[in-house]
Specification:
By secondary structure, this protein is of the alpha/beta class. The protein has helices at 6-20, 30-37, 51-56, 80-87, 103-114; strands spanning 26-28, 44-47, 64-65, 95-98, 120-123.
């Protein structure tokens, strides 16, 4: 991928956040998130989907996994920020939040920013992307559709 330097990538992510009126640092495409996470920048992917999604749909190797909503009930995880702090104690670490399609990861980025994490990002499109015309995910956008590394149980 030839998208320029990490600084240019961060500037694009920051500009998107500003254009979208987001309260956190930036918004990244899946390919940009992968590049940042593998560039030696120290950025961490934080997968906020449920345990069932990690096990049955797939997961990103090396990602920090902290549920935003619990499974099977779907309630908000009351320990989210505590579990995040246990996994990532440096609040200056770039955190790249990932969910199914970008909604829960937006909420997680907002919560982490409010809790003092300085460089939170939402991974746009998420792991599976939006639904296609037949109501299926995985064919329109997303981490998997971009051909980025993932594994399945």
């Amino acid at each position: 991928m030839s998208d320029g330097s990490d600084d240019e990538l961060l500037a694009r992510a920051r500009q998107r956040a500003t254009q979208m009126g987001l309260p956190y640092f930036g918004a990244l495409t899946p390919a940009e998130a992968y590049r940042l996470a593998t560039s030696g920048s120290g950025a961490r992917i934080v997968d906020v989907r449920t345990r069932a999604e990690w096990d049955w749909v797939g997961r990103v190797p090396g990602a920090v996994m902290v549920e935003w909503n619990t499974y099977p009930g779907g309630q908000r995880n009351p320990l989210f920020l505590e579990e995040l702090a246990d996994a990532v104690d440096d609040r200056d670490t770039p955190l790249l939040f990932l969910c199914r399609s970008g909604g829960r990861s937006d909420s997680a980025a907002r919560a982490a920013t409010a809790a003092g994490y300085a460089r939170c990002f939402n991974v746009l499109e998420g792991f599976e992307g939006d639904k296609d015309s037949a109501g299926h995910r995985g064919t329109v956008g997303g981490w998997r559709r971009a051909g980025l590394p993932w594994v399945q149980s």
